## 1
Amino acid sequence: MKAKITVRLKNVGRGYDLDKLPPALLETVIDAASPLIEAEINKAEERAIQKIVTEKFVAKVIKSALEGKAGRRSKASPDKLARNA
């Protein structure tokens, strides 16, 4: 994450070279940003889960899984047919 924050500093402070801060100040910026970034990542993850895992999604996945399993049971693979012959 440190590298991503450093890259972002290049865009934030055009003309100021914020990515070339003294190491102690750069670490302070990274340390201050990290918990805020983690909180935003957690919120985004929760929103993504709520958006994707819906009743319709669950029903579709279960239906696909059941149809796939039923299809696999009724079909014999060429390898099994050759071994049984």
Note: The mean pLDDT is 84.
## 2
Amino acid sequence: MTSALLWTGCTKLTPYNGEFFDCECGDMTWASRTLNLRMAEVEALDSTTFRYHVIADLRTQAEVDAREDSRDLVLTLTTAVQGNSTALNLSSGDGRLTLQEVDAPGTGIDWGMAGASLNIAVEEDRHTLGLGSLTATLGGNTVSANGNFTFDLPD
């Protein structure tokens, strides 16, 4: 009877392979690696000033496969947008663009922005941000990045 209980009392489940979140809201290359995007969101601060938030997964594919804790890059741009498009060339230290690496469970490290060129296109139902080039530094590490992000506006 005991062996019958042991045999029927255990449930075998298929192993959890996990889900890898990708918002499909654009693409980003960071240090020659393509990153999965977790989020792209725009917030209207007033009629001409917007704050853009982009979150990308910085983990390597090996780290993702090993289910290591998340390590994200948070890019935040706050700027005025004039008309249907705006081009920006930001110099080192321009406070309109910030970069932060956030490691689980919430430790943040600021990257220095050493220069960036961006284009913002405004449409009725979305904003599109083209990151033509970005140079960022952390300690002795300097990386280049680029990308395109689509921010859908609420209906």
Note: The chain has a mean pLDDT of 87.
